[in-house]
TrEMBL record:
UniProt xrefs under InterPro entries: ZipA_FtsZ-bd_C, ZipA_FtsZ-bd_C_sf
Pfam families: ZipA_C
UniProt-recorded name of the protein: Cell division protein ZipA
Biased composition range(s): Basic and acidic residues: 33-50
Regions crossing the membrane: 6-25
Subcellular locations according to the entry: Cell inner membrane
Ranges where the record places region Disordered: 30-79
A GO-annotated cellular component: plasma membrane
Source organism (scientific name): Comamonas terrigena
A GO biological-process term: cell septum assembly
Annotated keywords: Cell cycle, Cell division, Cell inner membrane, Cell membrane, Membrane, Transmembrane, Transmembrane helix
């Protein structure tokens, strides 16, 4: 071979090697970013330790849809779930109340009967232990957002008898419906429980939620359910005026519509796409934990049982792929349901902090819901508007994160 032929062959081999190297580099550059395996395993263990104890002893029907076990989870939900069913069959996160034990009860002792009278300390120790929850933790009916119908009784009724005749559904149309009893022993309103006795009841239906205001048809269904319950126990039902309650419902719904804020921001990849494992790893480092909804994570509240501070969502199909490292997407959504989270937890500041950290760690850019980039200066007016919104909710006694707000904005 001549020198020219040898030179051309060498040049060809070099060019071929460069092309192969470039293609490999380009493929690697545009491949979805993958999670570090060791970090992912460690983080998964931490998520399990962090998330599972929060469900201990909690009725899963009282939890947000994305926190429920798969058996109670709908197949698909929108980004903003209907959260925390306002009037579940059980009080939400109710502390256990010890029932009286017949074999430990203290028999009444007559004065001067020759028997030593128990001391106040002994009496208190032997009496049923009642640990009422703070008002904020009770799901008691409230005239601010409920239409309430008292049911007067001629004599007390056992909890078992009341439970047998309660309506099988807890809704009147799209509105939560609830019956409470006045406990003879504790002198307090509560969800009807076996082993207790009640000398009065009250039925209530929520005036408004995110489905709209209570209408005449829903009120009529509420009245029928309450009347059936009262008749079964020989009670006297006192229904409020339907037109008055429907008018209150419309006014409350108007207020709620004007003060309902659900913020969502998009995080978009600048260059290479993200894999589900990659997003989970970086979000997990900021405190997010997995939920039972594919493609959804949450940042738990520091207060157990409260609504999560933030929700992070990405492609649900990618999250269910057989090989999570080979699926790819270019954007995730970060959302905050303002009325559900207390102002004291500073959720919007946390939202900005998390968004900035994720953008820096994953080489992303913060955008609006339409994918248009957002500058940090754009977020400043939003913070001021939220403070005004918080003030208006406070003035209406519907403070963000309170039980009434969580029921109304549900």
């Amino acid at each position: 071979m001549s020198t020219l032929q040898i030179s051309l062959a060498v040049v060809g081999v070099v060019l071929l090697g460069l092309i192969v190297a470039y293609n490999a580099w380009n493929t690697r550059r545009h491949a979805p970013k993958r999670a570090d395996r060791d970090e992912q395993a460690r983080q998964g263990a931490e998520d399990a330790a962090r998330f599972e104890p929060a469900l201990d002893g909690v009725d899963v029907t009282d939890l947000p849809p994305h926190m429920r076990p798969a058996a109670t989870q709908p197949l698909s939900t929108p980004l903003h779930d209907p959260l925390l069913d306002a009037m579940p069959d059980k009080p939400e996160f109710e502390a256990p109340i010890a029932a009286p034990q017949p074999d430990k009860a203290v028999a009444p002792v007559a004065h001067g009967a020759g028997v030593e009278e128990p001391s106040p300390t002994q009496t208190a120790a032997a009496a049923p232990v009642h640990q009422p929850l703070p008002a904020e933790r009770k799901l008691a009916l409230d005239g601010l957002i409920d239409a309430i119908a008292p049911i007067q009784m001629e004599q007390s009724v056992s909890g078992e008898a009341a439970l047998q005749v309660q309506p099988t559904t807890r809704r009147a149309g799209s509105k939560p419906f609830r019956i409470e009893g006045f406990n003879e022993a504790t002198r307090d309103w509560e969800s009807v429980r076996a082993g207790q006795r009640y000398n009065a009841f009250q039925a209530g239906v929520q005036l408004a939620n995110r489905t709209g205001a209570l209408n005449e048809i829903e009120f009529s269904e509420f009245a029928a359910k309450a009347q059936t319950f009262a008749d079964a126990l020989n009670g006297a039902l006192e229904l409020p005026d339907m037109l008055h309650e429907v008018g209150r419902a419309r006014e409350l719904d108007q207020f709620a519509s004007e003060h309902d804020a659900q913020l969502s921001f998009m995080l978009r990849a600048r260059t290479a796409a993200w894999s589900p494992g990659y997003v989970r790893q970086h979000a997990g480092q900021l405190g997010f934990v997995m939920t039972n909804m594919p493609g959804r994570m949450m940042l738990p509240s520091p207060v157990p049982g409260n609504y999560p501070l933030l929700v992070l969502a990405f492609d649900a199909q990618a999250a269910q792929a057989a090989d999570l490292d080979r699926t790819a997407f270019h954007e995730v959504m970060l959302s905050l349901d303002v009325p559900q989270v207390p102002r004291t937890e500073q959720p919007f500041a946390k939202l900005r902090e998390v968004a900035q950290a994720l953008c820096e760690a994953m080489d992303g850019v913060l955008c609006d819901q339409n994918g248009q980039p957002l500058h940090p200066q754009v977020l400043e007016p939003i913070a001021g508007d939220l403070e005004l919104l918080y003030d208006q909710l406070d003035q209406r006694e519907l403070s963000a994160g309170s039980m009434l707000a969580r029921r109304l904005f549900n």
